[in-house]
Amino acid sequence: MAEFKLPDVGEGLTEAEIVTWKVKEGDTVVINQILVEIETAKSLVELPSPYAGLVQKLMVPEGETVPVGTPIIAIGDALDGPLPAGAHAGPAEQTESDPYLGMAEKAGATEAAREVLSADIDLSNPAASGSAEGESLVGRMKADRGATRRARRSAASIQTQAAFEHTGSAAPIDLDEQDEDDGPAVPATSAASAAPAGDVRVLAKPPVRKLAKDLGVDLRALVGTGPNGTVTRDDVQAAQGSSVEPVEDAPALTGGGRGERETREPIKGVRKMMGQAMVDSAFSAPHVTEWVTIDATRTMEFVERLKGRREFRDVRVSPLLVLARAVMLAMRRTPEINSWWDDAAQEVVYKHYVNLGIAAATPRGLVVPNVKDAEQLSLLDLAGALNDLVEVARSGKTQPAEMSGGTFTITNVGVFGVDSGTPIINPGESAILCFGAIKPQPWVVSDEIVVRQVTTLALSFDHRHVDGEKGSRFLSDVAGILEDPASALLF
What we know:
This protein is an alpha+beta fold. It has 3 domains: 2-166, CATH 2.40.50.100; 173-266, Irregular (Dihydrolipoamide Transferase); 269-490, Chloramphenicol Acetyltransferase (2-Layer Sandwich). It contains 9 helices and 19 strands. The strands form 5 sheets. Strands 9, 12, 15, 16, 17, 18 and 19 form a 7-stranded mixed beta sheet that branches. A hairpin with a 4-residue loop joins strand 4 and strand 5 (44-48). The chain is elongated and about 75 Å long. The protein starts with a strand and ends in an 8-residue tail after the last helix.
């Protein structure tokens, strides 16, 4: 039996929240099968299993935040039986050097698990478990694998593996937004690990559990009207305001003289990380913000022409694409914009590449994933990269590596109809550009007032090494390209 400890899936991760378990006690799992979805300080991450065998115990409940290195799940053989409450698997089957050693020698596995474990497979080789060549498991480096060889698999083992894959885990669940039709219901207990009569968990899905927690409704006091007695969202809402006693960990509600209420929500995960980053940036780098209002009519006309081209039919084209290309062109004249003030080394670090960050609002907070080496992409490839970046961010699946190493950020507040703002520089960078809404407004053209598509740009920059002349030149160059996209040929 072995314990799987919470690994560091990012750079310097110290803790993470258990969001959704993808397996339950008594399930048989194979190597690389997704066990759990966790929320780090940067994103949601799915953790694959480094072991094959039977799930003996889920050691951390959903919604709990634990430090890196904490045992979160125990996996062993069928004859080991479930772990009693408060027990740990112990180090017998897990070593610091290789947690996969010894798995094929266990004698008490179920028939399905034994077929996987007894097959002539080198478990130190990820390819043996069906993963792509060169793919690493969480917490396992390529250099640690040693020599690898091609897996030899019998027909029976292939059939068993296919059965496991057919019954794979469900898609990740967003506890904040999913309705009760998404995701499996959490069973009261498993046959192998019956809980005491007073501690039985009712049958309810994670989104319904969260709703009950938010409303202060005790699920144990409800009679489920769903399939097999499952407690539904309607059951919880119907119980709100009744005599049902709130659970102990429900959010604190305080009533004022006018019936006002307030709910307290812990600051954690992405919001906690971004909040601290913004404080550090605002009080360490002297911010200066400059504004310019421009006529973006020709940019809008250029976008419409791009949409009509055959090669751009499968990608979303917007003025943000033109702005992104304008930013990288303008950096050629003002490289200080793409540099960073290293206070510890007392050096200015000039970046000869552009990792272009796009600030994205998600249900879990603000994230800033970036397009790596954006300056090397064609306009078509850049459009595809921006589309993928935004879609992944909105789904909450942006990985820590996709948010590290940024050199310049664009925040597009125009999608909310906002004219502009004074953005805070992303840590590790020297400037951020705020893109406001493009609206039809009166504009003077050749001494006549006409209706044009007008927008406002706001550039915040680190005044320690980007002085007013450099910031103004960069902003003017970007504005000039948006006013006349053909002027990009001059750069």
